[in-house]
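pasting for the record
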Amino acid sequence: RAGGGAIILNADATAVARLQRPYSLDTLLVDVARSTDEFVYVALTAGTVRLVHGVDAAALPEADVSPPAGGGVREREVIVEGAPVLDLSGPLPVEGLEDATLRLGLRLDGVRRAERQTLVRLFGSLSTALVLTLVAIGFLGLRREYGALNARHQAAQEALRRRDRLTAMGELASTVAHEVRNPLNGIAMAARRLAREFTPPAGAAVPDAEIAELVGVIESEAQRINAIVQQFLEFARPPALARREVDLGAFVREAVEAQRPLAASRGVTLGVEAAGAGAGSLDSDQFRHVLDNLVRNGLEATPAGGMVRVGARREGRGHLVEVVDTGVGIAPEHLARVFDLYFTTKPAGTGVGLAVAHQVVSAHGGTLEVVSTPGAGTRMIIHLPRQEDEPDRA
């Protein structure tokens, strides 16, 4: 007091402490630590001040004093009480405290479960995608296989239809040929007798030379018709194959050389590639007829300056023979009928040659195919299988 002495007041500060506690930094840290179960600890260190909540201060891992990357928050994985914990630490500006650092410890159990669930979902998604990809690839493969099988099936059906047509036409040809040959023989015999025995009377209106010429026309036309009838008979009753081993390359070259005069007369280049064709077992007479027909057709379809190429080579255990020309080609609507008997686009054609060629190749166990583009040329392809008794000289 002014006059001496003092007045001392003792007051209970509990109420003041309770008033200050909700607004203290320590209370804030407690609230943060209790806000979620994912926090293992919350710690604030600044010099000698150390506030730790969530775990005992002794269980708190040593602080990471290394400088954070880019000046941000330091992040590391530590073990606290035998469990993995993500430790995050960084500077915390607090008035009155220097170099304050806040550390948060987050449980990694949930993160690990989330990672496992994510991996399981990712694996499931990848497995599903892989299965779908394999199914799609398999489907595409099946589509291709189906397309190839369908094409082969259609080709086989067409071959069967062609064979049926050829068989029916052959039977008809045989019947017609027999019916035509008898009167034709009578006409030919009458023509020969007229030419040999008939002498016009003196003063006849028709001179002897003219009568002889007319009789000669009758005889030659009868012979021509007889040759056509013979073709029909050969188609209806083809001779049995007389197979023998031949040098296929030499055989093809010989057939090509026989057609060179025709090629020269038409101004068409005729080439052959048959080296290494090897030996084959075939009926040389009948197969020569096939080659002659195909090469002649190619030459007749090729304009001057064009080319016809004949090739022969091994194909697997069999052989391939092809005749390629640069002629006018075959119209698409005619391709399916080129091997039909009597079908022809030539003004003077009989429609027998390719039918007989197809028949001979089939008798050898092979196939005769045609690939043609109008205006670009035609490719006739013969596939001959290897015979069981044919020597293997590959």
